[in-house]
Design goal:
The structure holds 3 protein chains of 3 kinds. Chain B is of the alpha+beta class. Helix content of chain B is 28%, strand content 23%. The relative contact order of chain B is 0.14. Chain C is 24% helix and 41% strand. Chain C has a 5-stranded antiparallel beta sheet, with no helix packed on it. In chain C, strand 2 and strand 3 form a beta hairpin.
C-alpha cells in the first residue's frame, strides 16, 4: 500500500536500529503514549530489537483502557434500554463493566451495533426515527473532531433522536501527570502522531521546557517508530529537551486548524478520571452547555453505579510506565484477555493485552 | 380469505365440499415460503417438486424414500475407511460476491472431508427456512448447491425442509452432513505434524471474510473482493496424485489461518513458524484490514487448503497445487519446529518475531 | 488510539452541508468527511481516522524523508559498514 508499505522496509528499519545502537551510551527510558504505537511495536517485534539499555515503556495511550469503569457501566445501562440503538467503535464491545460487557447486552436482546464512523451512527438515527440512537464517543484528540462533527450534524439536521455518551481524554495533561509524579522514570516521550496531526505539537513545548524532557512526534509504522526513537535518544545523549517532529508527512506545528475549531465548537476541557491513574485535571472533553441536549447521560439519567476495581491489578503503574505487565503476579494467570482484571488487559491495545497476545513473557 | 364453491379447480384438483367459512385450498406456485411448506403435506411435496428436485436432481433423490440407500462401488476393503462430517451454515447476507449460503454449505462439507484425505461422495442438506422467504431465492440457493456439488463431484442424496415462523430464523439456515471414502495409505491428521515439515497454503488469505463484511454494508466500505468459497478436494487429489506425503491438512475458515494453525500446533505439540513476507494476501484485502484494524491471519477463508508436508516434498507439493485451477497462488508460508511446542510464531517483515495468537472471537474494527 | 491510514481522494461531493469525498485505500473505497481538510482536492492523499480526514499527507515531505534514509543506508552499504 502506497504511503504505508515503504515504512515497513526491513533494510531501512535495520539501518536506523544500528544508529540507535551506536547512540545509546547509558540506560534510557522512553515512553510512547499511543495504543496504536504499542500495537505496532509489539506486532512487528520491534520492542525486542532495541538495544538492552533502551527501555521503551508504554503509556496510557489507549482510550479504551483509560475509560473509567463507571462510564462503561453507564454505557451498559443505556444500551440495555429497549428504545435505544447503542452504537460504538468496535474496541469497546469487549470491555467488561462491573458485571458484563456490550456483547453480553447484545446477547440479552439489546440493540448494540458497531460503526466505523460516528457519522454512520447519525445516519442510523435518521433511518430509525422511532428509536433513540446513542453513540459512545470515546477517544483522544484524534477522534474528537469526528465525534464533534456527529453532534453538530445532528443539531444542524434536526436529528433529535441522537445523543452521545462522551468519554474523551487528552494527552498533554496525562504527560504532565506522569512527569510530575515523584516516582517518574520516563526521560523522553514519543508523542502520538495522529493526536498531533489534529492538535499540532505546540502544546508540548512548555512541557519539554518545564520538565526537561525531549518529546518527538512519531508515526505508527516500524520505520516511523525507529525514527522517532532515534531522534529522542539523540536528544537524550546530547542533553537536549526539545519538541521535534519525526512524522513530517502528516504533522505540522499548528496542527489542523479547522479540526481544532470543530472540537472547540462542541467540546470544552474538563477534569477527567483515568482508569488506573485517577483524576487528572483538565485532561478530558465534555459537551459544551449549548449541546447539553445531546448528552446521553442527561437524556437517560443513568445514576451512579457502584464500581470496584480489582485489588490485584497494577494497571496504574503500568500506564505510567513504572512497571511492565510481566511484573504483575496476575499477568497471564488470573488476568488474561478473556478474563481481564483491569484497564490494561481490557483492550487489545492495552500494554498487558498486547504483551499477552504477542507473547511477551508467556513462555 | 373468501369462500370458494366446491368442485374441481381449473388445474383439476378437487376442493372439499364443506359449508361455512373454510380455508380454501392454497394456490400452487407461491412467491414466498409459508409455514405450510414445512408441514410435511401437499405444500412440502410441492416445494420439493418445484424447487429442490429440479435443482439438485439425481436418481437417489428422485426415489423419494425416507432415507437414501447407497451402494459402494466395490465394498470397503481392509484399510479403507469412511469419513463423516456435519456442519451448519449461517451467513448474512445470503448472497455475497463470489458465493452464497448454498455454495458455502456444499463446499464447507466437502472440504471437511477432503482434508482428512477422503474422496467426498454424498451430502445431505437440511433447510430451515424463515416464513416469507422468496421462493425464487430458495431456488437460486438450490441451484448454486447443484453447481458446487458438480464441481466437487458429489451428490446430494437426502434432504429435509422445515419452515420457522417469521422472525425466528434469519432468512435461511442450512445444515449439511457428508460422507467420504478414504483410500488406503492416506493418514493426514492434526496430530501428524513433525518438526522439519513445511507449511503450504493454496492461495491468498482473507478473501471470504472481507467479501462478506463488505456485502453486509454495516461498515460502509466498497471493494471488488469476491469470496474464495470453493471445494478443495481437487487440490487434495492433486497432492496425492503427485505422490506427496501429507502429514496434515485443513481448510481454514472462521478465525482464519491463525485459528487453524494454533489448533494444529497444540494437537501435534510442535511450533509453527511463519514468514510474514511469504503470506499471500490480495492488496484489496490488505487495504480493508488496514482500514479496519484486522489481522489478515484472522480473517475467514472458505476455499483454501493448508497442508503440512515433509521439507523434501515441498517442491513437488507446490508444483502439484499450482497446476490446479484453484492453486496458482500456492506458496510455502512457514516451517515446523519442535519448540516452543503449541505455539505459532511469525517472523515479521522487519526481522522481529511475535506470537500469532488464537483469535478472540468476532472480528471487530478498532480505532486504536 | 489513532488507527489512521493514508488514502487518495477520487471524487468530492457535498452532502447535508458537509464536504465529503470517496477515498481509495488501495482497492477498498469508503466515503470520508473532508470537512477539516478544505484544501484537499481530488488526487490528494489524506490520513483517515474513523471516516474523517484528519490531515493532508505531504507527499513531497514523505519522498524527501525516504530518499534521505535510502541514501544514508545505501551509502553505508557501499562503504561496507553493514554489519
Amino acid at each position: 500500500m502506497k504511503h504505508l508499505s515503504e515504512y515497513r522496509d526491513a533494510h531501512l528499519v535495520r539501518g536506523v536500529l544500528r544508529e540507535i545502537e551506536g547512540l545509546v551510551s547509558a540506560p534510557r527510558v522512553v515512553m510512547e503514549i499511543c495504543g496504536g504505537q504499542t500495537h505496532s511495536i509489539v506486532r512487528s517485534g520491534l520492542d525486542r530489537m532495541l538495544p538492552e539499555q533502551l527501555a521503551l515503556v508504554h503509556g496510557p495511550g489507549c482510550p479504551v483502557c483509560v475509560t473509567p469503569l463507571e462510564m462503561i457501566d453507564r454505557a451498559l445501562a443505556v444500551a440495555t434500554r429497549p428504545e435505544v440503538i447503542f452504537t460504538s467503535y468496535g474496541d469497546m464491545l469487549r470491555v467488561p463493566g462491573s458485571r458484563q460487557d456490550l456483547f453480553g447486552i447484545r446477547a440479552a436482546g439489546g440493540d448494540v451495533r458497531v460503526v466505523y464512523s460516528p457519522l454512520d451512527a447519525v445516519a442510523i438515527a435518521r433511518q430509525e426515527p422511532g428509536r433513540q440512537v446513542v453513540f459512545f464517543a470515546i477517544g483522544f484528540e484524534t477522534t474528537a473532531p469526528a465525534n464533534a462533527l456527529a453532534v453538530r450534524q445532528a443539531r444542524d439536521l434536526g436529528i433529535e433522536n441522537f445523543s452521545v455518551l462522551v468519554s474523551h481524554a487528552t494527552v498533554p495533561a496525562a504527560m504532565r501527570a506522569i512527569l510530575g509524579s515523584p516516582h517518574n522514570l520516563v526521560q523522553g516521550f514519543l508523542a502520538a502522531g495522529h493526536v498531533c496531526a489534529v492538535m499540532g505539537w505546540w502544546e508540548y513545548e512548555p512541557i519539554a521546557a518545564e520538565f526537561g524532557v525531549p518529546i518527538v512526534v512519531t508515526g505508527f509504522e516500524p520505520l516511523d517508530l525507529v525514527q522517532g526513537i532515534r531522534m529522542c535518544v539523540r536528544q537524550l545523549e546530547e542533553g537536549r529537551a526539545e519538541v521535534e517532529n519525526a512524522y513530517t508527512r502528516a504533522v505540522t506545528r499548528e496542527g489542523n486548524r479547522p479540526a481544532q475549531a470543530l472540537i472547540a465548537e462542541i467540546f470544552e476541557v474538563c477534569d477527567r478520571k483515568w482508569r488506573g491513574i485517577g483524576t487528572i485535571p483538565a485532561s478530558g472533553y465534555r459537551l459544551r452547555p449549548e449541546f447539553a441536549a445531546y448528552d446521553a447521560e442527561r437524556r437517560f439519567e443513568v445514576g451512579d453505579v457502584e464500581t470496584e476495581e480489582s485489588a490485584v491489578c497494577i494497571a496504574g503503574e503500568i500506564l505510567q510506565g513504572r512497571k511492565k505487565p510481566t511484573d504483575c503476579p496476575a499477568f497471564g494467570a488470573e488476568c488474561t484477555p478473556d478474563n481481564p482484571l483491569g484497564a490494561t488487559m481490557v483492550s487489545t491495545e492495552g500494554a498487558c493485552a498486547a504483551y499477552y497476545r504477542y507473547g511477551r513473557g508467556t513462555g | 380469505m373468501s369462500e370458494r364453491p366446491p368442485g374441481p379447480t381449473p388445474d383439476g384438483e378437487e376442493r372439499p365440499a364443506v359449508e361455512g367459512a373454510v380455508c380454501p385450498t392454497p394456490l400452487p406456485h407461491h412467491e414466498r415460503i409459508m409455514l405450510g411448506h414445512g408441514g410435511g403435506g401437499r405444500l412440502t411435496a410441492e416445494l420439493i417438486r418445484e424447487v429442490f428436485l429440479p435443482a439438485l436432481d439425481n436418481e437417489v433423490l428422485q426415489r423419494g424414500e425416507d432415507a437414501a440407500v447407497l451402494e459402494l462401488t466395490g465394498s470397503l476393503t481392509a484399510g479403507e475407511r469412511l469419513a463423516v462430517t456435519t456442519d451448519a451454515h449461517i451467513v448474512r447476507p445470503l448472497f455475497f460476491p463470489g458465493g452464497d449460503i448454498g455454495r458455502l454449505a456444499v463446499c464447507g462439507t466437502v472440504n471437511d472431508l477432503a482434508v482428512m484425505g477422503a474422496v467426498p461422495l454424498w451430502l445431505t442438506a437440511s433447510f430451515i427456512i424463515e416464513e416469507g422467504l422468496e421462493t425464487a431465492l430458495l431456488l437460486r440457493v438450490a441451484e448454486a448447491m447443484r453447481t458446487a456439488a458438480a464441481e466437487a463431484g458429489v451428490t446430494v442424496v437426502a434432504g429435509d425442509t422445515k419452515v420457522a415462523e417469521r422472525g425466528q430464523v434469519d432468512g435461511l439456515y442450512i445444515s449439511t452432513s457428508g460422507v467420504g471414502r478414504i483410500p488406503t495409505g492416506r493418514n493426514p491428521s492434526g496430530s501428524g505434524i513433525r518438526p522439519g515439515d513445511v507449511v503450504l497454503v493454496s492461495g491468498p488469505l482473507g478473501d471470504h471474510g472481507i467479501a462478506v463484511l463488505a456485502a453486509r454494508g454495516e461498515l460502509a466500505f466498497e471493494t471488488t473482493i469476491r469470496s474464495d468459497v470453493a471445494p478443495v478436494n481437487g487440490l487434495v487429489e492433486a497432492l496425492y496424485d503427485a505422490g506427496v506425503t501429507v502429514h496434515a491438512m485443513r481448510d481454514p475458515t472462521r478465525g482464519g489461518l491463525a485459528a487453524t494453525l494454533n489448533e494444529l500446533a497444540t494437537r501435534s505439540r510442535v511450533a509453527v513458524v511463519l514468514q510474514e513476507g511469504s503470506i499471500p494476501v490480495r492488496p484489496e484485502v490488505e487495504a480493508a484490514c488496514e482500514l479496519l484494524g484486522f489481522d489478515p491471519l484472522q480473517v475467514a477463508n472458505e476455499g483454501r487448503l493448508v497442508a503440512f508436508v515433509p521439507d523434501g516434498q515441498a517442491k513437488a507439493a507446490l508444483t502439484a497445487l499450482r497446476a490446479h485451477p484453484l492453486g496458482p497462488g500456492a506458496v510455502v508460508v512457514g516451517r515446523v519446529e519442535a519448540d516452543p511446542a503449541g505455539r505459532v510464531l511469525l517472523e515479521t517483515s522487519i526481522g522481529g518475531t511475535r506470537i500469532v495468537d488464537v483469535p478472540a472471537g468476532e472480528l471487530l474494527p478498532r480505532i486504536c | 488510539m489513532c488507527l489512521g491510514i493514508p488514502g487518495r481522494i477520487t471524487t468530492t461531493f457535498e452532502r447535508d452541508g458537509l464536504r465529503m469525498g470517496k477515498v481509495d485505500f488501495g482497492g477498498v473505497t469508503r466515503e470520508v468527511c473532508l470537512d477539516s481538510v478544505p484544501e484537499a482536492e481530488v488526487d490528494a492523499w489524506v490520513i483517515v481516522h474513523v471516516g474523517f480526514a484528519i490531515s493532508v499527507l505531504d507527499e513531497e515531505e514523505a519522498a524527501e524523508t525516504l530518499a534521505a534514509l535510502r541514501e544514508m543506508f545505501d551509502l553505508e552499504e557501499e562503504l561496507g559498514e553493514r554489519s
